[in-house]
Amino acid sequence: MVVAALALFVLYPLLVAAAAPRAEDWLRALTTARWRVTMLNTLQMAALSTISSVIIGFLYAYAVTRARIPGARLFMLVPLLPLITPPFVSGLAFILLFGRRGLVTYELLGLNTDIYGWHGLWLAQTVSFFPIAFLAIAGVLRSINPNLERASESLGAGRWTTFRTVVVPLAAPGVGAAALLVAIAVLGDFGNPMLIAGRYRVLATEAYLQISGWADMRMGAVLGLALLMPAIAFFFLQRRLQGSSVGRFVTVGGRGSRIEPAPVSPMARWGLFTFCLLIALFMLAKYAVILLGAFTPVWGVDYTFTLDNFRRVVVRGPELWNSLRFAGSAALVCAVLATISAYLVYRVKVPFGRALDLVSLLPAAIPGTLLGIAYVLAFNTPPLQLTGTATIIVISMVFSYLPVGYRIAAATLHQLAPSIEESAADMGASSMRTFFDVVLPLISTSFSAALVYCFVKAIGTLSAVVFLISHGTVVASASILNLAEQGYWGWAAALASLLVGIALLTLGVAKLVFGRRFAFFDI
Amino acid sequence: MLHTVLRSPHPTAKAWARYAILLTSSILLLSAWAAPRAQGELLVYSILQEQDAEVLTRLFREQTGIDVQTIRASGGEMVARVMAERGAPRADVVLGGASNLHITMANEGVLAPYVSPASDYLEGATRDPEGYWTGFYLTALGIGINEERFRQQYGDRELPVTWEDLLDPAFAGEIVMTDPIASSTAYLFLQTQLQRLGWDAGWEYLEQLAPLVGQFPTSGSAPPRMVGTGEYTLGVAFVHSLSGTIDQGFPVSLVVPPGTGGEAGSVSIIAGGPNPENAQRFVDFMMSVEAQQVFTDQSFTTPLHPDVNLPSAAIPRASIDMIDFDAALAGEQREETLRRWEATLD
Description:
The complex is a heterodimer. By secondary structure, chain A is mainly alpha-helical. Helix content of chain A is 74%, strand content 0%. In chain B, strands 1, 2, 3, 4, 5, 6, 7, 8, 9, 10 and 11 form an eleven-stranded mixed sheet that branches. Chain B is globular and about 75 Å long. The N and C termini of chain B lie far apart (60 Å). Chains A and B meet through helix 3, helix 12, helix 17, helix 23 and helix 25 of A and helix 2, strand 2, helix 4, strand 7 and helix 9 of B.
């Protein structure tokens, strides 16, 4: 059943999308100056944002895992915020902070700057996606045995030499893998380019314009597929660098030796502390300005306090309610599928396990834009006519975040020794009974974690959903984009604040109920 | 976790808490879907600004008891959507947008004709004789200027008053207009220049202007707002939209250049929509003096019904110098014009 669902809602739409364009559409895409520029821009933006994200992510991760800076535990929490809040919040926040009438640039410094363009997009993407690099690199750094550094130093190498010849080479593959994860995320992002890129065009927004402005599904598919190709290449490269995900979780959670890492020099330590402090403050300013914007009547003109924005967005329509019920339903289905899938791969060890593992993780490499286009193409005609329904939005959320749930479920299952099940079986329990009495209680926490993460991710998702919304199925993220684009910053900020608040509240409640067993997994 | 609660003789408080949360959220989720969803009795695709459409749908609901649901998008996006849904239309009515958009849709065969008995007072180019679209307000293009920003940037220089005045290279990066592919406002602007100056001279004008524009948002209400907040100095937008911005207290001056383009903002019925009878009632409603009065008071557009009182912020029709705009030509040339515009930008 899981396999059928994956085939129907992941592979089939992609094949339909791949078959939709004709040869002349491809030729047109390659020979039109507009799209050549767009493709180059997309790659350039992915490269720039990846480099800056990895540099910041590495320094930040090194500071909190190795340099033992003061408040490391607090600093670790800050980059988790962007992972659970929609990426386009960055774009919105930077317009309010550093825009042409931004709080910092104009009100405080009196500058006449312009945030719209590639530089604004670069900033927004770096801040949105460096946490991905941070989490992955922090995991890698933690898995490096501090004994190796101690050994290097006792052999007479200085701190810098040790860093250069021991830490960097050991971390390099993991850093490479982290870079590819960031690149995939930047390639597929739709909200930030839409908000802040000005006249700078990237494939995700251009594909949207082809469909929304021209109703040209075939060209939309071409541009979406052009995004898929580098993303898929990065995805497989990333798997290679990291080893197959089946073997990967052995290092996660294994803390290795208890020996504290060698201390870094005070200067480096305080330098890194300042760096982390600046980054963390910057990130918090991003959320503070959204909240401020939510209580401001007209940004840049009238800064008196108002509650009107909240009143407007709540009475305005059902979009927030839609977001809640769609994301809730999607999270439920997603967590069930992810758990079953992980159970099949890691426990039952079905013959096609590796293929199932691959297909369960594959949606992570599919840019949301393409997934949205592919769904419109594949489910627009009978027998599976789903466009315009709430069902298709829920389904798109389920499969967009299946990899998130799957990774969490897989990590938990992998850490359980199979001997528990074997002893149950030895004592005469049927396999059904073993599953319900032994396995189910054990995986319930991972199931809940998958549920919570899928929910907080799904509630802010935009890239695919924007193609699928219709009468009565408008979701909050799409509304935020629409309002921000019309210049209604206050309403957009109020709605965004509510989304962020719901995500934080959900995580907070989960943490409170499940306590320490509920860990922040890499998502 | 349910398991833990049911099996263990002394369930812990935490286990109960987990169980309670699980139960509550499942009930909430189920009720979310079970909640009686309003049966859409009229589905409207709106090109109007959010609040402008809201006053109309609210009044219609009050008068008829029909439940109205609205989706908003910019003009070009809406045309694309209606065409994409050809065969299985999901909405009944397209509300707002210049008549050339409705002509484009009518030419594509996605509209149903309906001559409203209430539309007798409409004259000339404000309605389609066959009833494929019906006008309910007049709209023309103007230039919005943020005077504060203009003075900061250009000192005592005189404000631009003609379309040609926009071509000064000193304005580079200070002009905002919408993307003609997505927005009906900007497409009307392209056609205004092409019809005013003639095809070739019009393109020369547009080629000179394009590099000066700071950005092309998709929604027609973005430029007035961006000029209002002082993000940009100059914005091309509908006169009524700029009047609204001024009425809200933004420091914006409105210039209506001589030889501007304007059209009848229209309503049309989508062929094969789910509620054809209610769609006709809605068109009748749009012809009423009540509907046009609330719409004018909210949007500052010029009404077509002779008995509507013009709010003071609105610009009377007589004070606008308009070219003899050919909406049918604009509708026919849409694809050709937009393709060339795309190429102009690179």
